[in-house]
Amino acid sequence: MSAPLLHASGIDVRFGGVHALRGVTLAVRPGEVCGLIGPNGAGKTTLFDVLSGMRRPDAGTVAYDGADITRRSPVWRARHGMRRTFQRQQLFGQLTVADNLVVARDWRGGTRAGARHRERAAAVLHDCGLDALGGAYAGGLPVGQARMVELARALADPPRVLLLDEPASGTTADERRRLAAVIRRTAEEEDCAVLLVEHNVAFVMELCSRVVVLDLGRVLAEGTPREVRADPAVREAYLGAGAPREG
Ligand SMILES: Nc1ncnc2c1ncn2[C@@H]1O[C@H](COP(=O)(O)OP(=O)(O)OP(=O)(O)O)[C@@H](O)[C@H]1O
C-alpha cells in the first residue's frame, strides 16, 4: 500500500465550549477515494477547513507528502496541488463555464500561458461531459450541472489532493453516476488522493474504497463500505433509525 499523501494526526478544534474535533487522525493515499460521513455537526466541515488550511487546529498536525504543513496557508496548499470544493457552491456566476476553469489556472500568474489554459479547460470540460456548456454563464446553471462544473474547475489545474464537500448534493441519479465516474477516473488515472464529505450514503458506499465515520468530533469507525455498514456503533449513530437518504 502506498504512503499517505495527506495525513492528519490528533486534530483538535474547539469553538469556545464546543469541542468540534477530538484527536482526529485520518490518512488519504494517492489513487484512493475515501468517504467522510457522519451526522450533522460531527465535525466534517471543520476537518476539511483544517485540511485545506482555512482553520488552524488547536492541537495536532497535518502532513502532506511527508512534510508538516499545519501552518501553511490555503494558498500555499493550493499551489502545491490541493483543491477543495464547498458545500455551498462557489462558482463565478458572471463568468462562463470555460472561464471559471481558465481562472482556476490563471491565478498562478503568467498570462502568456492563457492559450494552454484554454486548451486544458476544453479538455477537462470534454472529460466531464460539459462540452456544450463551455459558453454558458455559470450563474444560470441548474444545481446538478453546477456541481459538475465545480468538480471540473477543481480539475482544471491537475490536483494531487481533492477535497470535495458534498459534491452530490442536489443532483439527479444520472448526474451522480457521471460525477462518480469522473471522481473515480481522477483518482485512478491521475493518482490523486480524494476525500469527500457526503450525506448521500449510497453514493459514498458505491464510490469509495474506504469510509471514515465521524461522530461528535471523533472517528467512530473506519473501513471498507461493507465493514462500516455492518458496524453496530455506526448503525446506531448514523445508519439506523433516522438515517440519511440512501439514494
Ligand atoms: N464557526 C463556528 N463557531 C462555533 N461553532 C462552530 C463553528 N463551526 C462549526 N461549529 C460547531 O462545530 C461542530 C462541528 O460542525 P461542522 O460544521 O464541522 O459539522 P459537520 O459534520 O460538517 O455538519 P454538517 O453535516 O451539518 O455540515 C458543530 O457543533 C458546530 O455547531
Automatic annotation (TrEMBL):
<keyword id="KW-0067">ATP-binding</keyword>
<dbReference type="InterPro" id="IPR027417">
    <property type="entry name" value="P-loop_NTPase"/>
</dbReference>
<keyword id="KW-0547">Nucleotide-binding</keyword>
<feature type="domain" description="ABC transporter">
    <location>
        <begin position="6"/>
        <end position="241"/>
    </location>
</feature>
<dbReference type="InterPro" id="IPR003439">
    <property type="entry name" value="ABC_transporter-like_ATP-bd"/>
</dbReference>
<dbReference type="Pfam" id="PF12399">
    <property type="entry name" value="BCA_ABC_TP_C"/>
</dbReference>
<keyword id="KW-0813">Transport</keyword>
<dbReference type="InterPro" id="IPR051120">
    <property type="entry name" value="ABC_AA/LPS_Transport"/>
</dbReference>
<dbReference type="Pfam" id="PF00005">
    <property type="entry name" value="ABC_tran"/>
</dbReference>
<dbReference type="InterPro" id="IPR032823">
    <property type="entry name" value="BCA_ABC_TP_C"/>
</dbReference>
<protein>
    <recommendedName>
        <fullName>ABC transporter domain-containing protein</fullName>
    </recommendedName>
</protein>
<dbReference type="InterPro" id="IPR003593">
    <property type="entry name" value="AAA+_ATPase"/>
</dbReference>
